[in-house]
Amino acid sequence: MQRPVILASTSRYRRELLTRLRLPFEVQSPEVDETPLPGETPHALAIRLALEKADAVAARFPEAVVIGSDQVADLGGEALGKPGDHQRATAQLRRMRGQTLIFQTAVAVVCRATGFVQRDIAPVRVVFRDLSDAAIEQYLLAEQPYDCAGSAKSEGLGIALLDAINSDDPTALVGLPLIRTCRMLRAAGVELL
Fold this sequence. Notes:
- Helices cover 31% and strands 26% of the residues.
- The chain is an alpha/beta fold and 193 residues long.
- Strands 1, 2, 3, 4, 5, 6 and 7 form a 7-stranded mixed beta sheet that branches.
- The protein is elongated and about 55 Å long.
């Protein structure tokens, strides 16, 4: 008998990605403080939060296999969070134009009943075009990506902001690296095929 699978996330993007695996799963809010620790790098922050999210939900559902994930936009070692509103998104995109960012997308899988814990990160290098203020404004009004790290949705019109994407896990930029997630789920005993 397969253990229940839980996605420890309220992100609709992660839920949509996990649905691609045609695996029954539940969604639970991890309720984790996402404030970076002093001196914490974007890479370390993403890994820590992915594990904390999975572990927080696993504490409530110890028999389940729990998936946690987090993404941090890394601009030269500085973590850029979700903008939350138009003004902050405009400021972020102005800073990012012509720059290469690394979207640090971490995933963790935890099952307390078996003692299973794995975590990994899928860095995605993204080169932004040298965008005009008018292009930034037009994009933000069209897509309103205020709930996305880095103020852009590559799966939508945001792709027009980019010159290049480099990753070995193609869904990582959207928010959940499915290749790594599948690998961890198999290791945790979850049959996918």
